[in-house]
Amino acid sequence: MQEHVAIASRHDRVRAAWAQHLAASREAILLGVARCAQRRRALVIGAGDCLDVPVEDLATAFGQVVLADVVVSPVARGLARRFCGRVQCANWDATGALSLLAAEGDTINPAEVQRIFERADPGPPPGGEPDLVVSANCLSQLGLVPGHSLPTAAVDKELPGRCAVAAARRHLDWLAERSGVRVLLADVARLNIAPDGRELKREGLRERFGVRPPDRVWRWDLAPIPEWAQDFHRVHEVGMWIDGP
Ligand SMILES: C[S@@+](CC[C@H](N)C(=O)[O-])C[C@H]1O[C@@H](n2cnc3c(N)ncnc32)[C@H](O)[C@@H]1O
Fold first, then answer.
1. How far is the CA of 138 from the centre of ligand 1 (A)?
2. How far does the centroid of ligand 1 lie from the alpha carbon of residue 75, in Å?
3. What is the pLDDT of residues 127-167, one digit of tens each?
4. How many Å lie between the centroid of ligand 1 and the Cα of residue 164?
5. For all residues of the chain together, what is the average pLDDT?
6. In terms of DSSP bridges, do strands 132-136 and 41-45 run parallel, antiparallel, or are they unpaired?
7. pLDDT higher than 70, residue 1
């Protein structure tokens, strides 16, 4: 929930810097819509506040739109009310691991945590098998955020990163099992950019997650100075992949 509030309030502060990324994400989703021969159901995973999701277009194109997130936001609930009957919210954990981790308690060891993320089953898609499934800019967060909150991460600093890789790979396998059109929007790299435009640091994610080169790439000016740091802009390279029939 904290994560969600942080995203919404940063968007309020740096709206103009995010505009291009949000427009590119919505356009990618519409490319996915155009590929769908059948338009019974669309599923959006990591829907959040739907800043990057063209909900009205989806509600026009599909009989049912499911907005799934581990935290259903008030914005998503408002969209469900606005497009009453066509848009629904689902409180759903895309990793399938969070309830297992909660049941294990604080004494769980790092190897066991990683094993849970690797093997957990999120189950069938909420709402039923979709004709379009969108994974909306959540891939790199799936294991990272819960990984950081585990007590055992205090002694094993690499644990959140390993959880992120395990959860991302598991999500990609789950997506590949879907029969409909799949649109993946995800971070390809995290960059620190100096005020003069020099690239100070690049952390590549694509190879780590084991995903092919994206069909399109753009930059998301996630945290312009001084949001994240006084001396560099935090920028993500975002990729989009479209697969399926
Ligand atoms: C960077 S935000 C994506 C932006 C969002 N599509 C929007 O436009 O507001 C990542 C989203 O993934 C969601 N998320 C994180 N872990 C998740 C999980 N295990 N299952 C489902 N959603 C998750 C977060 O709650 C957050 O809303």
1. 5
2. 13
3. 999 999 999 999 999 998 788 888 888 878 899 999 999 99
4. 14
5. 95
6. parallel
7. no
| 83 C-alpha to ligand 1 centroid (Å) | 21
From CA 122, how far away is CA 96, in angstroms rounded? 4
Q: Residue 245's closest CA among 177, 180, 185, 175?
A: 180
Tell which one of 9, 14, 49, 69 to mutate to probe ligand 1, the residue whose CB is within 8 A of the most ligand atoms: 69
E strand residue ranges, the chain: 41-45, 64-69, 87-91, 132-136, 181-193, 199-204, 216-223, 233-243
- Strand 64-69 versus strand 87-91 pairing type: parallel
Check residue 108 and give its pLDDT.
Answer: 87
CATH code at 2-243: 3.40.50
The pTM of this model reads 0.95
Sequence spans of domains, the chain: 2-243
**Rounded distance from Cα 197 to ligand 1 centre (Å):** 29
List residues near ligand 1 (CB under 6 A). 3-4, 7, 45-53, 69-71, 93-95, 136-138, 141-142
Q: What are 173-221's pLDDT values in tens digits?
A: 999 999 999 999 999 999 999 999 999 999 999 999 999 999 999 999 9
Residue 167 alpha carbon, nearest atom of ligand 1: 19
